[in-house]
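can u do me a favor
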């Protein structure tokens, strides 16, 4: 079984030394990569600059910006067959339009930056793949609200996308409150599994991959 994992955060350049990023550390992807590699899975990790690295020896490629990540995934999925993509990277919804070529002066009192919306990479992964009918795409959705209706609305939009197989949902408010990493996994709005830690998630994903592969062989 071959699995590609994305982790960490994109860095959208403002100029040659500044960028816009987010709080993702890449620890989730690194832990999953370690666990799957220990179970004999052929793991490829595509990780953000400065993000956590796995302890296991896995095939690792680093990315910087949204465009860099997208190009890397196009190349990897278009040149090798994977059974699944665990898309845990925190990808920027916006990139800086026309970033400054050099280092901007700090003498300005005000600075205006224009952002342009990015497409959703996770929705295109099957199209990038050599085996779009077999590959499983696992998307991640992080919310930050105690409003269950808002959470369900965000989950629903992803879980019903025709080119996404499963959605892993976390809520930042809940993570901060309990000090662990509770999650739920959905498919077409149906809750398939849940757990309390990143380790639980890694183990659950592997079980799901094996079950899906067995079902396909038997069909």
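np, heres the sequence
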């Amino acid at each position: 079984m071959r699995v590609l994992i994305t982790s960490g955060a994109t860095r959208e350049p403002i100029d040659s030394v500044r960028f816009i990023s987010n709080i993702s550390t890449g620890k989730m992807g690194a832990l999953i990569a370690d666990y799957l590699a220990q179970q004999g899975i052929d793991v490829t990790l595509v990780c953000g600059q400065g993000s956590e690295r796995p302890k296991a020896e896995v095939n690792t490629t680093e990315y910087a910006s949204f465009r860099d990540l997208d190009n890397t995934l196009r190349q990897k999925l278009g040149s090798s067959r994977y059974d699944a993509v665990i898309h845990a990277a925190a990808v920027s919804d916006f990139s800086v339009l026309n970033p400054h070529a050099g280092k901007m002066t700090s003498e300005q009192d005000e600075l205006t930056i224009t952002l342009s919306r990015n497409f959703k990479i996770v929705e295109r992964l099957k199209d990038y793949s050599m085996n779009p009918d077999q590959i499983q795409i696992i998307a991640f959705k992080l919310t930050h609200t105690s409003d269950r209706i808002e959470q369900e609305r965000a989950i629903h939009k992803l879980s019903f996308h025709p080119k996404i197989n499963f959605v892993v949902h976390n809520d930042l408010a809940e993570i901060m409150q309990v000090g662990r990493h509770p999650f739920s996994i959905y498919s077409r709005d149906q809750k398939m599994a849940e757990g309390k830690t990143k380790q639980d998630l890694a183990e659950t994903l592997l079980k799901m991959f094996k079950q899906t592969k067995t079902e396909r062989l038997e069909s």
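The chain has a mean pLDDT of 93. hope that helps!!
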